[in-house]
């Protein structure tokens, strides 16, 4: 487990969502983000979950096993990128040695374009077990057309760029459908190794801006905010007004997001050495343990 901790940062705030209390009791918001019939005010959450609505279920279930209260508060949403409509034509008209997919969202967008193109034969390299799982069903149904053939030793883009196998051909062509906000790290790393890389910006992220006041108040009270991308971090900083003496923690899905958090000035940052759900849960638990210790420590 890698983490850095400090005790001072004035923090920003999130958007409206679903409050999940302990397993025996769930409090949900309506479409307008207002809490529905509840005999008493909801208890403060332990952790704020910031992925898009519908993408937090596995994390919620894992946290509930530890009796952790969650506030589901989407900070970003995915929209089409400038190259979304080009993807099917590129797949129909060209052949690639590898398709590089680095996130579950990139996988979902790619599969739509791939099916529109007539499901041509492709060989896919993925970053992370979560990304690989998006391909499980289609690869089992049609394993001759889509093969998930490589993942790096560590679930990071720069590691994939250094480890992706080359054939004996003089030219090895790679298609990289990515977020418009993704860095050039992968394409530059592959280009340096002699790969010919075609990048398509097939999706992008935009911040969620509507925040229901009660949800915002609850989010600020949470000791931990869980984030899965630098975009979510930026949305958190943009959407939440700075609060005096807010010194709580950020728990990141992996090192890339953790490093981005530090660069953005956040001080109490936790993340696993290996990205993924299990490590993310451990990072959240570690952040909560430290928060509890500090809260219970005798005051000088």
UniProtKB/TrEMBL annotation:
GO BP annotations listed: protoporphyrinogen IX biosynthetic process; uroporphyrinogen III biosynthetic process
EC number of the protein: 4.2.1.75
Keywords for this protein: Lyase, Porphyrin biosynthesis
InterPro entries xrefs: 4pyrrol_syn_uPrphyn_synt_sf (IPR036108), 4pyrrol_synth_uPrphyn_synth (IPR003754), UROS/Hem4 (IPR039793)
Domain Tetrapyrrole biosynthesis uroporphyrinogen III synthase residue range list: 58-282
Pathway entry: Porphyrin-containing compound metabolism; protoporphyrin-IX biosynthesis; coproporphyrinogen-III from 5-aminolevulinate: step 3/4
Coiled-coil ranges (or none): none
Known catalytic reactions: hydroxymethylbilane = uroporphyrinogen III + H2O
Database matches in Pfam families: HEM4
GO MF annotation: an example: uroporphyrinogen-III synthase activity
Described purpose of this protein according to its UniProt entry: Catalyzes cyclization of the linear tetrapyrrole, hydroxymethylbilane, to the macrocyclic uroporphyrinogen III.
Family indicated by similarity: Belongs to the uroporphyrinogen-III synthase family.
Protein name: Uroporphyrinogen-III synthase
Species of provenance: Urochloa decumbens
Lineage: Eukaryota, Viridiplantae, Streptophyta, Embryophyta, Tracheophyta
């Amino acid at each position: 487990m890698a983490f850095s901790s400090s005790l001072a940062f004035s923090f920003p705030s999130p958007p409206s969502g679903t409050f999940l209390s302990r397993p025996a009791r769930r409090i949900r918001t309506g479409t307008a983000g207002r809490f529905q019939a509840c005999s008493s005010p909801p208890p403060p959450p332990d952790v704020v979950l910031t992925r898009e609505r519908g993408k937090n279920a596995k994390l919620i279930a894992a946290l509930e096993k530890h009796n952790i209260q969650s506030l589901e508060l989407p900070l970003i949403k995915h929209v089409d990128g400038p190259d979304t409509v080009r993807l099917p034509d590129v797949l129909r008209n060209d052949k690639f040695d590898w398709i590089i997919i680095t996130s579950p969202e990139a996988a979902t967008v790619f599969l739509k374009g791939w099916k529109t193109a007539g499901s041509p034969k492709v060989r896919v390299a993925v970053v992370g077990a979560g990304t690989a799982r998006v391909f499980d069903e289609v690869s089992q149904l049609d394993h001759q057309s889509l093969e998930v053939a490589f993942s790096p030793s560590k679930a990071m883009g720069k590691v994939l760029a250094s480890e992706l196998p080359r054939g004996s051909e003089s030219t090895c062509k790679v298609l990289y459908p990515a977020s418009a906000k993704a860095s050039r790290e992968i394409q530059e790393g592959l280009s340096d190794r002699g790969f010919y890389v075609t990048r398509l910006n097939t999706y992008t992220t935009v911040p969620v801006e509507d925040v229901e006041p009660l949800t915002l108040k609850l989010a600020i009270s949470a000791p931990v905010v869980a984030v899965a991308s630098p975009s979510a971090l930026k949305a958190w900083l943009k959407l939440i007004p700075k609060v005096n003496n807010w010194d709580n923690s950020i728990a990141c899905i992996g090192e890339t997001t953790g490093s981005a958090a530090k660069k953005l000035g956040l001080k109490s940052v936790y993340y696993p050495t290996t990205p993924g759900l299990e490590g993310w849960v451990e990072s959240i638990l570690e952040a909560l343990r430290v928060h509890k210790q500090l809260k219970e420590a005798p005051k000088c």
